[in-house]
User: What shape does this take?
Amino acid sequence: MSNANVLDEVFDKFFSNAGIFKDREVLRHDYLPERLPHREEQIRRIGEVVAPVLKGARCSNIFIYGKTGTGKTAVTKYVLMRLEVKARELGSLVGFCYVNCRLAGTEYRVLANLCSSLNLSVPFTGLSVGELFERFKKSLDSSKRIMIIALDEVDALVKIRGDVLLYELTRINETLSHSRVSLIGISNDLRLKEYLDPRVFSSLSEEEIVFRPYDAGELKTILAERARQAFREGALSDGALSLCAALAAAEHGDARRALDLLRVAGEVAERKGAMVVTEEHVREAEKLIEHNRVVEAIANLTLHSKLVMLSVFHLVKANGYKTTTGEIYDVYTELCGELGITPLTQRRVSTLVNELDALGLINAQIINMGRYGRTKKIRLEVTRTLIKEAFSGDSRLGQLIEYEPRCLSQNKGKS
Ligand code: ADP
Ligand code: MG
Assistant: This one.
């Protein structure tokens, strides 16, 4: 078949298909649904905490935590949106700023976001973080209002950049005369507390709200509402819907995961020219999503992070389940030697380990060893097969997959 004929067939199949989707936009992560079932309690509690700002009083800081896909972002945005409407109606002087710290990436960019919510323009570079903070503070104070700052995925910022900005923000009211700040910190990582100065944590968590994972039944109602808008009538089998809910519930009750499964299963069905999304399409979607997630995440790592990832790979392969930062550093320096590059310091590598943890490629758990201090136990969060696949396309690092680190075979001899 000629190229043109192949394409004709693809396009015809796509077009003639009455269509699996009616509106696939509603399956996007950032789509804010009008109803958020099973989160009535959290919506009410956040609402009660923030309500005082309508009367011009500062409200308590709120620390919200729960695993990914438990509705933290959706619920927070929903409440703040309603609050903003109400504040306007009542003429209350309330400012709002929502920043996703993971996407912002640096303290500078988080602050730049805060400034732009006050219509304060900020140069891309050229100012120090301290100077930027001062400008923000000055402008905020002269605006004479209560400012609610929501720092979403704040764990990603803290793990990589430390808690300096949070520290300054939790103390900002001491230096303001006419304005007040209330913070909403949102974390996907339940262990964020371990990364924060105790004073920062206690100030941030004047109120604590937990988002527990959804169970399969809850996910099913959430999905069913979205599916009604997203899919053409009859294009989604009940079996497929239940399976998406069950798979996401088995993972950790992640609604985002469930929505992804639903969307990708729909796309798989569409490509196959099927009229109805079936369980088989969901199974295929599951494999596709995990594969793409890992391969993309690894491809985007810097060279040194890739080497750290490879070191964990080798250690887990040689020793089984868990490993430590010290062991990782030994293998890592050996791999650097193989490539003829200078290794980073152990401290820096420890930061890279935290970054890989934030990406969900490894899991680093801090273990308290009493008077021997603290150490981290690290394990892989993805299968070794997937890591192999991710590195197979890399001409330089691909060969390090089969490499057998000397420091590991020596250890084996000893024990
Ligand atoms: P988190 O911020 O906790 O990671 P999100 O708020 O981003 O989770 O939710 C993930 C996805 O699931 C979003 O698309 C969101 O709209 C949807 N979602 C989460 N909880 C609900 C709910 N109770 N009802 C409807 N959609 C929900
Ligand atoms: Mg979120």
